[in-house]
C-alpha cells in the first residue's frame, strides 16, 4: 500500500519510520482555515483539510493519506508557532509552572484496491506539566532557536525536556503524531493492513 504523509514535519516522518512505516512526503500547501477556537475541533478540521487536499491530487488505488495538525493550548487559548523570539519568550513564560494541553488531529483517507474510499478523523489530547522556570532559563530557551518552528514555542524532544515535570497521555502526541492510536485506526480502516 502506498502511504502518503500530507505534512512536511520531519518529526512526523521520523515517528512513522520508527514504527515501520515509510511514507511518501507530500505537504499540503492549502491555506488553513477554521472557524472554531476549540482546540480539538481545530486540529480535526485542519488535519482533514490537509488530507483532502493531497488525496484530491492523487489518482489510483491502494493508497492511504495521513493528514495531521498539532496545537498547544493553555488555559483555553491556542498557542501557534511564535513569530519572534520575544513571542517565544511570552509563550514559554505562560507555560512555566503550569499544566497545558497538546492536541493532535489526524485524518486518514484510504482508497482500497477496488477504488472504494473510506476515511476517519480523530484528535488525541495530552496534558503536559512544566516545572517553574527562572526568567534567565526562559530567555535562554527562547533564544536557542528551537522554539521557532514549533507550536507552543517548544519541542519536548529537544532542550525543553529539561523543564517537563510529567505528562499524562501519549508522549508521541506531543512530538506531533499519536502513532499508537494511528496504527489502531489504520488497521480498523484498512481491514488490518499497515504497509
From TrEMBL:
InterPro entries per UniProt: ITPase-like_fam, Maf-like
ATP-binding as UniProt keyword: no
Pfam families to which the protein is assigned, alphabetical: Maf
Key word Hydrolase present: yes
Gene3D superfamilies: 3.90.950.10
Places the protein is found: Cytoplasm
Site (Important for substrate specificity): 11, 70, 157
Active site residues per record: 69 (proton acceptor)
Catalytic activities: UTP + H2O = UMP + diphosphate + H(+); dTTP + H2O = dTMP + diphosphate + H(+)
Any one GO biological process: nucleotide metabolic process
GO CC terms, sorted: cytoplasm
EC numbers for this chain: 3.6.1.9
Keyword annotations from UniProtKB, A to Z: Cytoplasm, Hydrolase, Nucleotide metabolism
GO molecular function: nucleoside triphosphate diphosphatase activity
NCBIfam families referenced in this protein's UniProt entry, alphabetically: maf
Family the entry assigns: Belongs to the Maf family. YhdE subfamily.
Name the record gives this protein: dTTP/UTP pyrophosphatase
Lineage start: Bacteria, Bacillati, Bacillota, Clostridia, Lachnospirales
Amino acid at each position: 500500500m502506498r502511504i502518503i504523509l500530507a505534512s512536511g514535519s520531519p518529526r512526523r516522518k521520523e515517528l512513522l519510520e520508527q514504527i515501520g512505516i515509510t511514507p511518501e512526503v507530500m505537504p499540503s500547501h492549502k491555506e488553513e482555515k477554521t472557524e472554531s477556537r476549540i482546540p480539538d475541533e481545530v486540529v480535526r478540521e485542519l488535519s482533514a483539510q490537509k488530507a483532502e487536499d493531497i488525496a484530491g491530487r492523487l489518482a489510483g488505488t491502494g493508497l492511504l493519506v495521513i493528514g495531521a495538525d498539532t496545537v498547544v493550548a493553555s488555559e483555553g487559548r491556542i498557542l501557534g508557532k511564535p513569530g519572534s523570539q520575544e513571542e517565544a519568550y511570552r509563550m514559554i513564560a505562560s507555560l512555566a509552572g503550569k499544566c497545558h494541553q497538546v492536541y493532535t488531529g489526524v485524518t486518514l483517507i484510504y482508497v482500497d484496491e477496488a477504488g472504494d474510499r473510506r476515511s476517519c478523523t480523530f484528535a488525541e489530547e495530552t496534558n503536559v506539566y512544566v516545572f517553574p522556570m527562572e526568567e534567565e532559563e526562559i530567555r535562554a530557551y527562547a533564544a536557542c532557536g528551537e522554539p521557532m518552528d514549533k507550536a507552543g514555542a517548544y519541542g519536548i524532544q529537544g532542550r525543553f525536556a529539561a523543564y517537563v515535570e510529567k505528562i499524562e497521555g501519549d508522549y508521541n502526541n506531543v512530538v506531533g503524531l499519536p502513532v499508537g492510536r494511528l496504527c489502531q485506526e489504520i488497521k480498523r480502516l484498512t481491514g488490518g493492513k499497515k504497509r
